[in-house]
Specification:
mainly alpha, three-stranded antiparallel sheet, 13 helices, disordered C terminus
């Protein structure tokens, strides 16, 4: 099960609400921990709240959250601080999280766990920008996948040029991959999709279509390397054949041709929305820090 599916798609609403409102649920325990720590949360504390039994498996969610910070060009240290803590007499590595970091970790958690699903719903209730992000299906996943696509495109470009793609004709090599996957050239595909913006079409693709392109780009690079493809025309043929293979795979799996998949919200707006969500969550803790703390006097 994808870590970024809607929590309501995985676990019943009643179970989620029991986790939120029950004793130790995120709406109580989470805020208590933040108050006790002075506005931050330790990873190993959040791990327990989210129902993880070991830190190794929890680190996957942490890694994806850190990757999202990097993609959004937010300094990692604005949300994650590596520390060491002594727990039960043993010195262990840990992190300090901000509220926004906790949110991204929870969004990348295992939604088969009721605690994770409950935490996701809880964070959605905190800020309008967070709720808006969740109105767009798979938005956080799209931000991460788009970054992966960009990295793989750069890698493929280097491999193709080393194999003999002429720099001035690199666009023809790229177009061949699209032609194979969509049975039409890139320019016609832009018109067919109704995208007027001059940026990459991938910025307007949903999660399924983005993943398909990531697969196409990765397999094209592998084909060039493994089969020793050389020369402009041979490389274009290879790119087109991989595109056709990806197209057929999609048709076999879902029955929907990639050109008929709906366009999604501009990825630039999604990134901007995530940054806004981070600012709103930060304001919550700033407001809490300004409130006077009520200390219960000791009993006589």
């Amino acid at each position: 099960m994808s870590s970024l599916e809607s929590p309501l798609d995985v676990i019943s609403f009643s179970v989620i609400m029991d986790e939120i409102t029950g004793v130790g649920g995120p709406s109580g325990a989470f805020e208590d921990i933040g108050m006790r720590n002075g506005g931050f949360w330790f990873a190993r504390e959040l791990m327990d709240l989210l129902g993880y039994e070991n830190y190794t498996s929890f680190q996957k969610a942490i890694g994806r959250a850190i990757s999202t910070f990097s993609t959004l060009e937010i300094p990692i240290t604005d949300g994650f601080t590596q520390v060491e803590r002594v727990i039960d007499g043993e010195k262990l590595p840990d992190y300090k999280f901000t509220r926004f970091a906790c949110y991204l970790v929870a969004m990348n958690g295992d939604t088969n766990k009721p605690q994770v699903a409950a935490a996701q719903v809880y964070f959605m209730s905190m800020a309008e920008a967070v709720r808006q992000i969740h109105e767009g299906t798979d938005n956080i996943a799209r931000v991460q996948i788009r970054d992966d696509v960009s990295q793989k495109e750069r890698s493929l470009s280097g491999v193709a040029k080393s194999a003999g793609v002429i720099i001035e004709r690199y666009g023809l090599f790229q177009n061949a991959g699209y032609r194979g996957m969509y049975c039409m050239d890139y320019g016609r595909l832009r018109d067919y999709k109704g995208v007027k913006d001059n940026r990459s079409l991938i910025d307007f693709m949903g999660k399924q279509e983005m993943v398909a392109h990531l697969f196409r780009i990765t397999e094209t690079e592998a084909k060039i390397k493994n089969q020793g493809v050389r020369g402009q025309q041979a490389l274009e043929n290879a790119a087109e054949s991989v595109g056709r293979m990806v197209r057929q795979t999609m048709l076999n799996a879902s029955g929907t041709a990639p050109e008929n998949l709906p366009i999604a919200e501009d990825i630039k707006k999604v990134r901007s929305g995530l940054k806004k969500a981070g600012r709103e969550l930060k304001k919550i803790d700033s407001a809490k820090a300004k409130r006077p703390r009520h200390v219960t006097p000791p009993q006589a």
